[in-house]
Amino acid sequence: MWLRRRLPWEPGAHRIASTSGIEGLESVAFRNADDGSKALIVVNSAAQPRSFAVRWAGQAFVETVPAGAVVTFCWKS
Questions:
Q1: Does residue 33 belong to any structural domain of this protein?
Q2: Residue 41: is it exposed, middle or buried by C-beta count within 10 angstroms (0-12/13-18/19+)?
Q3: Half-sphere exposure of 60 toward its Cβ, with a 13 Å CA cutoff?
Q4: How far is C-alpha 28 from the chain's CA centre?
Q5: What is the number of other CB atoms lying within 10 angstroms of the CB of residue 8?
Q6: How many domains does the chain have?
Q7: Looking at residue 54, which CATH number applies to its domain?
């Protein structure tokens, strides 16, 4: 996984499916039209940390988001 020092989504990005199914976690994901990279923004509105898994194209990672935090993940596949 890699991170950029700019907004993780670009003009022309398309929203793609994202679901958490975990109470207190909300997410939105985008695929950038220019290079196909993905951006996932996750908000934890719960009073305690929440863990979740991200799965894409046969790969996966697990992350824990602190209570009240917003996190952004960016990757190319």
A1: yes
A2: middle
A3: 6
A4: 7
A5: 19
A6: 1
A7: 2.60.40.1180
Residues 6+ apart with CB under 8 A from 8: 30, 37, 39, 41, 72, 74
Q: Is residue 6 part of a domain?
A: no
Task: Please identify which residue in the block is written with the tokens 């207190």.
Answer: 24
Residue 35: give the domain boundaries.
14-75
CA distance 67 to 43: 9
In a domain, 45, yes or no: yes
Which single residue is written with the structure tokens 């863990």? 51
Residues 23-67 pLDDT 10s: 999 999 999 888 888 889 999 999 999 999 988 889 899 999 999
Measured between alpha carbons, how far is 41 from 22 in angstroms, rounded to an integer? 15
Residue 3 lies in a domain: no
Query: What global pTM score does this model have?
Result: 0.79
